[in-house]
Amino acid sequence: MARLIPVIIALFLAIIIGNSALYVVKETEKAVKLRFGKLVNTNIGPGLHWKVPVMDEVRKFDSRVLTLDAPPESFFTVQKKRLIVDSFAKWRIANVDTYYRVTGGNESVAMNRLANRVNDGLRNEFGTRTLHEVVSGERDQLMSDIKIGLNATVEETLGIEVVDVRVKRIDLPPEVSEPVFRRMKAEREKEARELRSKGIEAAEKIRSSAEREKTILEAQAYSSAERARGEGDAQAAATYASAYSQDSEFYAFVRSLNAYRSAFKDKGDIMLVDPQSDFFKYLNDSKAGK
C-alpha cells in the first residue's frame, strides 16, 4: 500500500499538469497565446492544443458576427437640416492579432471605437445628401458607401470587418417634429374638407338628377294612365251607346237593376220614395216596357 501512494500522487500531478497544459478552441472562437504577457501565436485554429503551464496564457474571442447597436445620434444633411438617426452595425473579428493589440481583447473597447467610426461615416454621408435622399431616394446606396468606407480603415486599425450597416430610424428633432406634425395634420384636414365638399356636391347632383327623372317618369306614367283611362271611357261609352241603340228598354232595365243593387245593398238602409215614381217602375210592373 505504501508503494502505491507515490504512484497515485504522481498520477494526480500528471492529471493536473495535463489539464492545465491542454485547451480547446471552438469553431466559433478565435484565440491568441501569450507567454509572459507577449504574443507568441495569433493564428490558433479550432481544436485541441497545448500550452506550457504557468508560462503561457490563452485568450479566446467570439468570432461570430456581433451586433453594435449604437445610441441615436444627431446629424445634419447638406441642407443643414438636423436629423436624429438610430443605426446598428454587424461586425466580426478579421485579424485577431491586430484586434488584440489595439483593444487588448476587450469587446467593449472594440464596440466603442467602432461606434465612433460608424458615427463619423454616417455624419460624412448625411452631410452630402438631402433629406429626401437619406430617407428614401439613396438610402441603400448610403448604407453601402458607409460599409465600404468603414472596411477601408477598421480592418487595419481595429482588426475587424464590418459586415453591414443599417439605419433603423430617422426622426426630426423634437422642436421640429411637432410643428411638422401640426402642418401635416392641417394639410390632411384641408384635403379631407375638400373631398367632403366634393362628395356633398356630387351627392346633390345625383339627388337632383334622380328627382328630375322621378318627376319625368311620374308625368309620363300619369299621361299614359290618363290616355288609357280616356280610351277606356270612350270605348265604354261607345259600348253603352251601341247597346242602348239596339235595345233601349233592356238598357234601362239593366240600369234599374244596378240602381236597386246599389240602393239596397245594406239591410239597415232606409229610403223614402214615392211608390209611383219611376224608380220602382220595374218593381211595380213586371211587364213594363213590353
Short account of what is shown:
This protein is of the alpha+beta class and about 290 residues long. The protein has eight helices and nine strands.
Outline the secondary-structure elements.
Layout: H1 4-21, E1 22-25, E2 29-35, E3 38-44, E4 47-50, E5 56-62, E6 66-69, E7 73-76, E8 82-93, H2 96-103, H3 107-126, H4 131-137, H5 139-157, E9 160-171, H6 174-246, H7 248-263, H8 281-284
Antiparallel strand pairs: 1-4, 2-3, 2-5, 6-8, 7-8, 8-9
Helix pairs in contact: 3-5, 6-7
Detailed description of the structure:
The protein has 290 residues and is α+β, with helices and mostly antiparallel strands. Among the domains are: 4-62, no CATH class; 66-171, Band 7 domain (Tetrahydropterin Synthase, Chain A). The protein has helices at 4-21, 96-103, 107-126, 131-137, 139-157, 174-246, 248-263, 281-284, and strands at residues 22-25, 29-35, 38-44, 47-50, 56-62, 66-69, 73-76, 82-93, 160-171. The longest helix is centred in the C-terminal third of the chain and has 73 residues, at 174-246. It is elongated, with a radius of gyration of 54 Å.
Structure characteristics:
290 residues; three-stranded antiparallel sheet; 8 helices; 9 strands; 21% strand
Shape: elongated
Kindly, what is the distance between the CA atoms of the first and last residues, rounded to a whole number of angstroms? 167 Å
Per CATH, the superfamily of the domain at 66-171 is Band 7 domain
Q: What is the strand tally?
A: 9
Largest sheet: 4 strands, antiparallel
Binned, the helix content reads 55-70%
What structural class do the secondary elements suggest? Answer: alpha+beta
Under CATH, the topology of the domain at 66-171 can be stated as Tetrahydropterin Synthase, Chain A
Tally of helical segments? 8
Which radius of gyration do the C-alpha atoms yield? 54 Å
Mean pLDDT: 81
Query: Which CATH top level class of the domain at 66-171 fits?
Result: Alpha Beta
Sequence of secondary-structure elements? HEEEEEEEEHHHHEHHH
Strand content: 15-25%
